[in-house]
Amino acid sequence: MDTLNKIINWFTDGSSNKLSYHYFSRKFTPMAFIGPALLVMAILLVFPLLFSFKLSFQQWHMIEQASPFWIGLDNYFELLANKQFWNSFGLQLLFVVVAVSFELLIGLLVAVLLNREFPGNKIIRALLLLPIFILPVVSGLTFRFMYNPQYGAINYFLKLIGFNSIAWLSHPETAFAAIIIQDIWRMWPFMFMILFAGLSSLPEEPYEAAIIDGASRWRTFLHITLPLLKPTIMTAIILRTVDALKAFSEIFVMTSGGPGNATTLLSVHIYKSAFKFWELGYSAASSYMLVFIAMIFTVLLVRNMFSE
Amino acid sequence: MHKFKSWSRWKKGLFFLTVFIILFVELFPIFMVVTTSFKPKLQIWTSKSPFELFRPTFKNYLQVFKDRNFAKYIKNSLIIASITTFIALFLGSLAAYGFARFKFRGNFLLSMGVLASRMIPPITLSVPIFILISEWKLLDTYFSMILAHISFSLPYVIWLLLPFFKGIPASYEEAAMLDGCSRQRVFFSIFLPLVAPGLVVAAIFTFMLSWNDFLYALVLTSSRAKTAPLAVSEFIGQFAPEWGMMTAAGTVFLIPVFIFALGLQKYIIHGLAFGGDK
Fold this sequence. Notes:
The complex is a heterodimer. Chain A is an all-alpha fold. Helices cover 73% and strands 1% of the residues of chain A. Chain A has helices at residues 2-11, 18-27, 29-55, 74-81, 83-114, 121-129, 136-146, 153-160, 172-200, 205-213, 217-245, 249-255, 266-275, 280-306, and strands at 58-59, 69-70.
């Protein structure tokens, strides 16, 4: 602590001298607090990002080439013409849209359902949170285990209600549904938690007015609860969307992108092109497309935060 | 809305049935992990029903910890996550204080930059970080893993703490400064004790973020610095999936999760919601 104080003192006035306090505190004190973090982020975030931006204009097959060479926009042209890229791009968007909508729907329904005083409410809410904190790799592997056509638990339940067992991870459509189901299972409680916190902090007065007016429960929900909850819902959607864009490990251990390319989301595509085919320039270019999508949602989040 | 007590028996019954079904679906995979970890191998591969009775065995646990040396990977994970959490929390709390308490040009832009960097998918950074780390000959070291983990946890910490810090009234600090305290003394002896609960939340979540990481472990480590999540994934090979070992390791991971989710519920809500809330 002492050395740190000295360093900070060196950056700032370091004395109780009024004059220098006024002068320096405006100019340098904020930087003494923020500077170290900014420096670290510049080295660990900005520099790698710029490095990969440069890389996206180069060709570098790490195994065959000693060093990269410039090819201009070729990686981007290749990417735009690459069916596999567009396939991954589409799968990524579909994954995010389907998973997040279901999570929102289930989370909202359960939040409304549980938003009352009943015996055991606290322990039930706590238990519902458990899936969020499970290691994604363990979640992915456990679902892979449960999807197994011979001894998997999911097929046991399917047979119980009279369906045939399905080799979930061996067919393109069911494999894609399987990774979405895993994501919904693990993350709808996240939506629930945020929406529940939002619901329980809503003001009472509009509801009292609605009761006096004799409004039906459904109309009350539609015209009072939803509009009041809208900012919370928006925040929850955007946070989950950004997280769903990061999904990698659970999908990688469930299907490694297969069968074929049926579950090769953009993140898996980038991983494969970099660390399986060693096309580093191409993978840098495609990772910038993912950043681009993430930034759109960031802008939405910022606008949502400041529009209240 | 809150008239539960006045409900009829039928309505209450229906309500609890729905709650039970939801809980069953959410907890079933966890039940699978725990029970499978105590099952003999043969029974895992032949069992017709997940509720089949079995004679519990510790063989899977023995295999995980004796044959596969799992304790070493847990140790690696703990070391990497602890150091990452310490550094990210230290730098992050200083920065969040700076953003929350000072008016200066670029404050808004810089804090938006921090938010934006929290949104960047780690896969994007994994390629350049891998190249740089391998050029610096630092592959498979704790150091490289800690660097990589700080890259995503530092913006996260700042963004988690910022709204929390802003909510603390500045009057204490102003009083102390009028008495002649320097800014840094105000920060360390007055402000930090005030925000201790927030720091605990941030520490837990940062630790978890680093602990959960699989991508960087996959890209940057091979044996010496290999972390627990990567080791778990290797139990499931292409041909003979070792479900017993995977679930045994998974059960070990569940213990802190249980303590955490059941014991610290009100902190969790804060941590989850403030990931980007105002």
